[in-house]
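Dataset card, provenance and construction

Sequences and ligand SMILES were collected as paired inputs. For each pair, a complete structure of the chain with the small molecule in place was predicted and serialized as structure tokens. The example below shows a pair involving zinc ion. Curators did not alter the output after generation; any descriptive sentences attached to a record were derived from the structure itself.
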Amino acid sequence: MALSDEELDRYARHIVLPQVGGAGQQRLKEARIVIVGAGGIASGVLPALGGAGIGHLTIIDNDRVELSNLQRQPLYESDQLGERKVDLAARFVGKRNPHVEVHTVADRIDGDNADAILSGHDLIIDGTDNFATRLTVSDAAVRLGIPLISAAAQQFQGQVALFRGKPCYRCFVGDAFDADDCDTCAELGVLGALTGTVGNFAALMAVREIVGIGPDAAGRLHLLDGSSLSWRAIRLTADPSCRICGASS
Ligand SMILES: [Zn+2]
């Protein structure tokens, strides 16, 4: 699966980077990444990963475009209200880069379908807006042994972390949110420019992870305060009694 002349041109600014090169670009082309949720976070993730030449992207979402999405979801346009997000997101990526194979799942991920949908990918990016889905995705990621980038934005706060086994997302948030579906940005609000920034940061983390650039990012939570314009990172600790990753070594 060598890179064509067109691809060498397309990715020239990657390939000239010593940390990426032709070998790194090839790794991006061979990568299979799944993004859960095609909303504000995905609107930062998909343009970046589509452009970067990720070989296979799976997009999961069961929503249709609503007027209130447009403030933070530049994947969608004002004349697309009511259309399925996965179809539009796939078309967007396809137009940006025809080398990307896009697979869509117009379904809500849950405990019954998570393993089947997520298996076979090299990396999961979660950009959903509720804890119940996030925990379902995280539990599946640990079971399947697939690294998970969890990205969230609410009000002026952004959070992004890479989880690889232990600690897992559940160690971080605990079990209390399994059934909690109400704490979403619909109620609390979110600045539109923040979701794109957080999504783009998640895409950067994904490219680092696939190519193998810089120190390992796993187990650190990156926090963006959009009101003070500051980033900080904290180390996450594993919960020894975590019912998902606690028993594994
Ligand atoms: Zn855990």
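Derived descriptions for this record:
Residues 192-211 form the longest helix (20 residues).
The CA atoms of residues 166 and 245 lie 6 Å apart.
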